[in-house]
Amino acid sequence: MIFRLIRKQDLEYIFQWLEPNDYLRSGVLERYVSEGKAYTVEIDGKPVAVGIIHVVGEEGAWLMGARVMKEHRGHGVGSHLTQGLIEEASRSGLRWVALLTSVDNKPVHRICEKLSLQKRALISWMHMDKDKIYRLGEGGVYISVPSTDRKAMDHIKRSIGNSNLMIPDSDNMWVWRPPSGEAIERMILASERLCLARDGGFGVIALIRFRRDRGTLQALVLETQKTMGSVNDIAGCIAYESVQDRFGEIELVVVEGPGQEQSVWESIYQLAREKPWRAYVFYKEL
Ligand SMILES: CC(C)(COP(=O)(O)OP(=O)(O)OC[C@H]1O[C@@H](n2cnc3c(N)ncnc32)[C@H](O)[C@@H]1OP(=O)(O)O)[C@@H](O)C(=O)NCCC(=O)NCCS
After folding, report:
1. Which of 94, 114, 130 is a domain's end point?
2. Whose CA is nearest to atom 15 of ligand 1?
């Protein structure tokens, strides 16, 4: 097995075995290949895997797009690929690697375990109807301010900084990174409003973005401390914001620390339109 960069002439073969609806086909793989950031594992002269390093802030390697050709799965190719990507990141002087994978993707969990990446956040994506979240949040007590509010910003920086959670890189929910003061600030400024829940010293924070192009309100909820009361408070705040701007649909992204068997968000999952998509962020310092 040879770990190496993907060359332009490999693409024809790779596109033969990638799934027809794979998002890597829509120009994504070509872009990373031309930047020299897409890798493969070669077996008998053929590229049978794909793995991409997306550099975050010149300091981290976000590993994405891992694929192994069906016929070659279960024989260590995915492990070899991931190990190669981590070594490559380390050689380039990057300080951490991280990846996002569904809570059901057991092969990836196993690969991460073998390569000492640890679960650092549990993320749940769901779509909610405004009236459902409104009912849940009735009576909630919260603070809602514009994202430029300096006092709220400083408070959030402290709570997220101490929480050890992962945060999205600016407003890209497909790339997550450990929080730094600057990264938290960028993420907050990419939103329009901030909600803080009352109890536990403002343990739950929601960042609200109005996706007018999509007609949805997107709420990113960071659980910096676990308290049930805070969940209702935040639900109330999101409902209030959606009523103000008349958004019927809410895209809710909840970020929690991993490890708790029972999530305080269970009550919300039952109200979502479809089963929430849940994923772990795995992380390792180099
Ligand atoms: C995920 C993927 C890249 C793994 O590639 P692979 O070549 O099969 O991986 P490996 O053979 O190196 O390792 C898989 C490990 O998971 C284990 N595994 C496989 N299925 C498992 C299951 N259902 N439960 C628990 N462990 C499982 C294997 O035993 C192996 O562990 P081991 O080395 O201790 O025996 C490949 O399955 C794939 O392309 N999947 C579709 C795309 C995808 O999900 N990509 C990841 C996006 S984050």
Report:
1. 94
2. 107
Residue 114: inside a domain: no
Domain shared by 148 and 189, yes or no: yes
Is the CB of residue 206 less than 8 Å from the CB of residue 238?
Answer: yes
Same domain assignment for residues 129 and 72: no
Please report the atom of ligand 1 found closest to the CA of residue 114.
Answer: 34
Residues 276, 286: Cα–Cα separation, whole Å: 32
CA of 67 to the centre of ligand 1 (A): 10
Look up the domain containing 77 and give its range. Answer: 2-94
Q: Which atom of ligand 1 is nearest to the CA of 77?
A: 7
Q: pLDDT by residue for the chain (286 residues), tens digit each?
A: 999 999 999 999 999 999 999 999 999 999 999 999 999 999 999 999 999 999 999 999 999 999 999 999 999 999 999 999 999 999 999 999 999 999 999 999 999 999 999 999 999 999 988 888 777 777 778 888 999 999 888 988 888 888 889 999 987 889 999 999 999 999 999 999 998 886 545 567 888 888 878 788 999 998 887 666 677 888 888 888 887 777 878 999 999 888 766 677 787 888 899 999 999 999 999 9
- Say if 111 falls within a structural domain: no
Question: How far is residue 136's CA from residue 240's CA, in Å, rounded to a whole number?
Answer: 12
156 shares its domain with 72:
no
